[in-house]
Amino acid sequence: MSFAFALWLLLQGLSLLGVLNYWRHLPVDRQEEAPDGVVVLLSVRDDWDGGAELIARLKAQTARFRLVIATSGDCTATEVLVAREGDWVQLVRGGVASDEGQKVHKLRAALRALRPEDRWLVFVDADILPPVRLVGRLLFPLVRGKADIVTGYRLLLPEARIGAALVGAVEMQLATLPRAASATMPWGGAMALTREVAERLDLDAALAGRLSDDMAIGLAGWRAKLRLRPVRDLLVASPLEARGAIGFGARQYRHIWTNSAGMWWVAWLVVAVQALGWVWALAWGGLGAVAVGYGAAVGRALARRRILASVLEPGQMRAARRSLWWDMLAPFAVCWVHLGMQLAAVCSRRIRWGGFDYWVERGKVVRMEQAR
After folding, report:
1. Is the model more confident about 177 or about 58?
2. Considering only CA atoms, which of 145, 114, 170 is closest in space to residue 323?
3. What's the whole-number average pLDDT of the chain?
4. I need a labelling partner for 56 at 20 to 30 A (CA). Which of 14, 110, 225, 283 fits?
5. Which pLDDT tens digit goes with each residue over 207-259?
6. What sign has the CA pseudo-torsion 8, 26, 262, 125?
7. CATH (domain of 134)
8. Listing from the earlier edge strand, what are the strands of the sheet with 356-361?
9. Residue 1 above 90 pLDDT?
C-alpha cells in the first residue's frame, strides 16, 4: 500500500467517523425549560413581509416569551403585527447605522430596550423555520447551569438548482461536524444567553462597530473563557434560494476571514486537503482510491440522512435530500465548491449584506454604503 493511498484511507475514515460521532451523540432525551423572563430578539429589514410562517412557529413554541422585533425605521408589517399581537410583541426602531452592521445596530437598540424582568435572551433570524422546541431547548443548558452561551446551527433547504444544492451540501458538512464546547462558535440564527452573561460581556460594547453579531459574541465569549455549548439536535431549517447561493457561502467565509484569519486558515487547510485528495484519487489513485472516497461518501450520507430524519420535519426532508444526493454522488464537486467559496472570501474585504456594502478590517466596519 502506497503512502498516498494510506493517507487517503485515513482521511476518508476520519471524515466518516466524524459524522458517525455526531450521530452517536445526538440527544435522545431532548429536555426543555420554560422559565419566566424570556425575551426573543429578532432583527428584520424594513421591507420585511411579516414572516407569517415564522410568527406562527414562534407562537407555537413550548416556552413562553416576549418577542422584540428591531427595525431600522418604518416597517409596515411589523407595525401591523404589533397592533394585532401587542400583548407579546414589542417594536424597537434602531435607525440607520453609520459605522456598523445594520443588523448589529438594530440588535443593540433591542438590547437597550430590555426590561428589568428580562433574564433570558434568545436571538433568532427572520429566515429560519424554527421547530416548536427551539426556545425551550436553547434555554435548557442555561437554566440548568451547564453553559453560558448556547447555540443551534443552520440546516439549509436548497431550491431545486445545482448551485443551491451544492452550497446546501457544503453547509450540511459543516452542520454535522463533531462539536466540542471549546471549539464552538455561536450562530446568531438560534442562540441564547443569560442577561447576566450579556452584562458580563458588556454586549452592547462587544457588538459596537461590528458587522457579524455571532462572530462578535463568540469571540468575546472565547476571550472571557465562557462555556459555549451546541445543541446538536437543533439543526434549524433555513430555505436557500438558488439566486446568490454561491455568494451566500462566500460571504459566510468572508465574515470569518475579516474577524479571525487564523480560524479561516484552519478551515481552509481541512477543506484543501480533502479537495486535493480528490484530485489525486481521480487522476492518479486508481479505482481503489475512488472506491474508498465513494465508500466514505455513501457512509457519511447515510449517517447524515439518519441525523436529518431525527431533527427535521417530514416536509423538510425533500429539500434536504437534494444536498444529500450531491454529497453522495459527487463528493469531489462539493469539496471543490467549498474550497472555491473559501478562496473567493479572501479576495475582498467588502461584504454585501442586507442592502448595504461594508468594508471590514479585523471585524470592524471601516466603511459602509447603501448597495446599488
Report:
1. 58
2. 170
3. 96
4. 110
5. 999 999 999 999 999 999 999 999 999 999 999 999 999 999 999 999 999 99
6. positive
7. 3.90.550.10
8. 350-353, 356-361, 364-370
9. no
Residue 182: pLDDT band (50, 70, 90) is low
Answer yes or no: is 42 within a domain: yes
- Is 305 within a domain? no
Give the chain's domain count.
Answer: 1
359 within some domain: yes
Residue 223's domain comprises 24-262+346-370
Which ranges of the chain does DSSP label H, i.e. alpha helix?
3-24, 52-59, 76-85, 102-112, 134-143, 162-175, 195-201, 203-207, 213-223, 245-259, 261-280, 286-311, 317-329, 331-345
Helix (H) or strand (E) holding 118: none
Count, residues in the chain: 372
For 329, what's the count of Cα atoms within 13 Å in the CB-facing half-sphere?
Answer: 9
In a domain, 245, yes or no: yes
| pTM to 2 decimal places | 0.95
